[in-house]
Amino acid sequence: MSDPIPPSNGQTPPASPVAKFLRATEIDTRLLGMIGALVLIWIGFHLYGALVNGFGAFLTPRNLWNLSVQTSSIGIMATGMVLVIVTRHIDLSVGSVLGFTAMAMGLFQVRFLPEYLGLGSPLIWILTIVFGLILGALIGAFQGWLVAYRGIPAFIVTLGGLLVWRGAAFLVARGETISPVDERFSLLGGGPYGSIGATGTWIVGLIACAGIIYLLVSGRASRRSHMFALRPIWAEVVLGTLGCGLVIGTVLLFNAYPWPRGIVRQYAEANSIDVPETGLFISHGFAFPVLILITVGIIMTIVMTRTRFGRYVFAIGGNPEAAELSGINVRWVTVKIFAIMGMLAALAGVVASARLNSATNALGTLDELYVIAAAVIGGTSLAGGIGTIYGAILGALVMQSLKTGMVLIGFDAAIQQVVVGGVLVLAVYLDILYRRKSN
Amino acid sequence: MTQHAQTPLVELRDISIAFGGIKAVDHVSVDLYPGEVVGLLGHNGAGKSTLIKCLSGAYKQDSGDVYINGEKAVINNPRDARSYNIETIYQTLALADNLDAASNLFLGRELITPMGFVDDARQEAETRKIMARLNPNFTKFSAPVKALSGGQRQSVAIARAVYFNARILIMDEPTAALGPQETQMVAELIQELKRQGLGIFLIEHDVQAVMDLCDRASVMKNGQLVGTVDVKDVTDDDILSMIILGKQPAKVA
Ligand SMILES: Nc1ncnc2c1ncn2[C@@H]1O[C@H](COP(=O)(O)OP(=O)(O)O)[C@@H](O)[C@H]1O
Ligand SMILES: [Mg+2]
Q1: Residue A306 touches chain B, beta carbons under 8 Å
Q2: B170 lines ligand 1 (CB under 6 A)
Q3: Residue B147: CB partners within 8 Å, gap ≥ 6?
Q4: Quick one: which of A209, A292, A430, B170 is 20 to 30 A from A172 by CA?
Q5: B85-214 sits in which CATH class?
Q6: Distance CA A219, CA A225 (A)
Q7: What is the span of the domain harbouring residue A71?
Q8: B45 C-alpha to center of ligand 2: Å?
Q9: In terms of C-beta distances under 8 Å and separation of at least 24 residues, what long-range contacts does A12-21 make, across chains too?
Q10: Tens place of pLDDT for every residue, chain B, 253 residues?
Q11: Is A314 in the B-facing interface, judged by CB distances under 8 Å?
């Protein structure tokens, strides 16, 4: 039962410098492809704007900051969609669940809670979020139960859910828009006050850099203690520099986007600060929704790679029968997966309604397509068993870049739909080609 | 071995299970004593795998009972079977192809760090230990098992069944993908486990291997039990004719 062990060096044909670099740093080509696509999209839209409209609006701090905020809600849901698709299911209801939970949270914080706590109570925002997340988790768990214990295909359950929850979002307030939401709640949507400013952003950035260096160092130590092959030192340094460089670049970029003048004036008046003649430069920095997305991404990555539950998700995706025979309670794990998905849809509902400062029954319409596309573009295999959280978040960034870019250069909604639909099919096709080649 | 003083480790009494109209297992009774290897033989489709799946918790029999150490056992799923220290090497191997050897070996029973995370390092160390014993040539510890050869995959499945101190071991054609050398290693493993007092059900097509390894042999045909014989009382031709004709040889019956 022994395959000859290929010698790790030497036998492989002389590689190009690029291939050598990739092998040493262990950056996977798929990640690289995604980043390449992203760069192409960004530069493409910027140049198009510059050449055709006389103004390249894409690669500006303002637009990229907005892009980060707009990516949050899709990105949050895409991390959950990874689990769903890895286990060979699908969830078409996430956009509608977002809409319904956002409406429910809107009513809860505007009509219900103030009656008991008084308007503007500092408890309102947190109770609303807890309520929304529980509601989302229950909806997801119910759909998961129908899939796992009643044997209805997820496609059908969630297709039904797509209509049911959208209709329910209308019915709970007969189509009214609930606005404005609680003041503290609305900060979670971003905006000048919903961002952490220059200092906070530097602190987050430096923590992130420390985290990157810690991961590289501890990863190396653990490889050594298990006698695995180590990356060459120069590759570690390159990875660390790239990672920290990216983080610091993002910090500088987001700090370069100032508050609008009106808000500055308002803020200065409220805090009796004198605004000099040249104006006051107050940075946005990271917006709360982006921090929420990053936090969700980190937690979900730990869940998927380090916990039993995550291991079971992958096992079920790889071979559901084997998972069951290994003593995994496949049906119960499936319920949990859909519950997590529902909860994340509700969290995205928090971000989306906070950003609008209102809840409408149309919130999240068509989001399911963006979310599924994000997960698939990010390398989640529809055949099951394979997928990463960071890939899905990058995929969300790709999808949102396309959408934002088309809006910026003035494509109308019809063209946007054509492009997004085409990209989804193309992404799945490329994925199939990629896997065929790597087999 | 015909006269046993002890209570049997396992007794499958009058087990029946049907799929649609097909009676896959039809009123079959077999038993197994500690330190004994019982061979299960029969053509493809005779119902051998289906019978042992009722013991391993993969299927629930339509009628009939399972007794373990003389007490009626309730086995509704693989978790229940594991709680009776029943381990199974399935004919299909039942591996998650996208996971590595260690993740498969510990699937459902992961080793956990004090923080509550999966202890991949310790799992791999343990996997290396047991593979060094079962298959010293095994080196692909970090590859997903779909990248392994048939024999390597089979040794992962065997390792998983052996690692957790089973008392009852079910081996459904464990050497199907193995070469002669590895088959010999599995034979030695069976003998060692038998000495340790395990009871083993061995599904095997090679009659000669059954004659060498087993104490008794039960033959099935079309879902029914043809008969159970002590291998030292019969020749391999007797067993072959049981498989083919579906009748007990005259001298034992
Ligand atoms: N899950 C199932 N669904 C339907 N029929 C099955 C199933 N499992 C086994 N069978 C049928 O039961 C019979 C016995 O199969 P099996 O136990 O696999 O035989 P053996 O292991 O002796 O080759 C066959 O006719 C097979 O087609
Ligand atoms: Mg079989």
Answers
A1: yes
A2: no
A3: B140
A4: A292
A5: alpha beta
A6: 10
A7: 61-412
A8: 7
A9: A21/A235
A10: 445 568 899 999 999 999 998 999 999 999 999 999 999 999 999 999 999 999 999 999 999 999 999 999 999 999 999 999 999 999 999 999 999 999 999 999 999 999 999 999 899 999 999 999 888 888 889 899 999 988 899 999 999 999 998 999 999 999 888 888 888 988 999 999 999 999 999 999 999 999 999 999 999 999 999 999 999 999 989 999 999 988 887 665 4
A11: yes
User: Which one of the ligands is nearest to B218 CA?
Assistant: 1
- Taking contacts as CB-CB distances below 8 angstroms, the residues of chain A near B176 are none
Distance CA A364, CA A91 (A): 14
Residue A28 within any structural domain of the chain: no
d(CA B103, CA B118) in angstroms, rounded, equals 10
Size of interface A-B (CB pairs under 8 A): 97
Domain boundaries, chain B: 1-23+57-78, 85-214, 216-253
Task: Supply the ipTM of this predicted assembly.
Answer: 0.91
Q: Is A317 on the interface with B (CB under 8 A)?
A: yes
Quick check: A385 and B96 CB within 8 A?
Answer: yes
Residue A194 falls inside a structural domain:
yes
Q: Among all ligands shown, which has an atom nearest to the Cα of B60?
A: 1
Q: Is the pTM value of this prediction over 0.90?
A: yes
Does A324 sit within 8 Å of B96, measured CB to CB?
no
A434 lies in some domain: no
Domain contains A114: yes
**CA–CA gap between residue A43 and residue A356 (Å, rounded):** 29
Chain A residues 167-226 with CB within 8 Å of chain B: 222, 225-226
User: What residue of B is the nearest CA neighbor of A328?
Assistant: B108
Beta strands in B92-131 (DSSP E): none
Structural domain count, chain A:
1
The half-sphere exposure of B253 on its side-chain side, counting CA atoms within 13 A, is 10
